[in-house]
């Protein structure tokens, strides 16, 4: 969009542009917001491609708007390809059942956040969460009930997170939450909130209440940590929570 804006600037001068595309999760605002604007909802066939707005301090003429509409036509198909590519990448990294990230992007995301936290002397914490006796839920109520449980737990976790936190479905009934700019004490509070939310939530399946609890382990980044050590401490803490009776939060030592 930046290239399109700069290429057309000699033909249709403008001070700023805004582009948003919810499918992309993209929201771009470039330049100085101005009084006059023209907006276009971009579409190729039935594919929505977001909304583009150009802004400047004097009105756009009819000739300029006609020209812009023609130029936009040449943008639609490259934009459609970019959207499809982005959707494919997003799907590959998303667990379709729980709509959380899957393992594909886990290592890269954690390493990137570890680097950022170390460079900026910021806190970073990680929570491992494993649903208790999940096999029993599957065996007693069926696999569909197990799937509904996974969806419900993911939703409860998401409801307790901030925008910058990231949730991954790590394996079968295991989730990992990366908590930015949060120290061990505050990550523990978050883990306890999530544990209570899961315990209190009443999942009704086939008219029967299904009791769900989870065990959680928490670790925070240390200055000499590498990726494996950071992850392993939280995983070990979660296993300690399991071994000491489940439905509890353990902090990494
Ligand atoms: N319904 C459903 N079940 C799954 C899925 N992925 C893994 N499972 C099941 O999750 C169960 C995990 O069982 P275990 O590893 O024994 O763990 P658990 O029963 O939760 O026991 P603890 O972790 O020790 O409390 C297995 O029965 C798997 O078949 C899934 O996507 N959907």
From TrEMBL:
GO biological process: cell adhesion involved in single-species biofilm formation; negative regulation of bacterial-type flagellum-dependent cell motility
Enzyme Commission (EC) number: 2.7.7.65
An annotated GO cellular component: plasma membrane
Cofactor requirement: Mg(2+)
Residue span, GGDEF domain: 122-253
Group of enzyme by EC: transferase
A Pfam short name: GGDEF
Highest taxon above the source species: Bacteria
InterPro entries: Diguanylate_Cyclase, GGDEF_dom, Nucleotide_cyclase, Rev_trsase/Diguanyl_cyclase
SMART domains referenced in this protein's UniProt entry, alphabetically: GGDEF
Known catalytic reactions: 2 GTP = 3',3'-c-di-GMP + 2 diphosphate
Coiled coil: none
GO molecular function, one term: diguanylate cyclase activity
Protein name, entry field: diguanylate cyclase
Organism per entry: Crenothrix polyspora
């Amino acid at each position: 969009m930046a290239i399109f804006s700069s290429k057309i600037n000699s033909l249709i001068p403008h001070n700023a542009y805004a582009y948003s595309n919810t499918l992309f999760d993209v929201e771009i605002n470039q330049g100085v917001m101005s009084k006059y604007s023209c907006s276009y909802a971009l579409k190729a066939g039935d594919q929505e491609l977001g909304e583009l707005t150009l802004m400047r301090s004097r009105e756009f003429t009819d000739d300029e708007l006609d020209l812009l509409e023609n130029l936009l036509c040449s943008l639609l198909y490259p934009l459609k390809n970019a959207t499809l590519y982005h959707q494919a990448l997003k799907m590959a990294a998303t667990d379709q059942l729980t709509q959380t990230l899957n393992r594909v992007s886990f290592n890269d995301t954690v390493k990137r956040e570890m680097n950022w936290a170390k460079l900026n002397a910021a806190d970073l914490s990680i929570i491992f969460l494993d649903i208790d006796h999940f096999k029993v839920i599957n065996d007693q109520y069926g696999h569909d009930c197990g799937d509904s449980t996974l969806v419900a737990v993911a939703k409860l976790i998401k409801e307790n997170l901030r925008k910058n936190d990231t949730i991954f479905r790590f394996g079968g009934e295991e989730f990992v939450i990366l908590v930015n700019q949060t120290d061990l004490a505050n990550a523990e509070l978050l883990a306890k909130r999530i544990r209570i939310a899961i315990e209190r939530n009443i999942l009704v399946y086939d008219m029967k209440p299904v009791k769900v609890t989870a065990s959680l382990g928490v670790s925070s980044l240390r200055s000499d940590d590498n990726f494996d050590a950071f992850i392993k401490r939280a995983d070990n803490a979660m296993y300690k929570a399991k071994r000491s009776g489940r439905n509890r939060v353990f902090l990494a030592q």
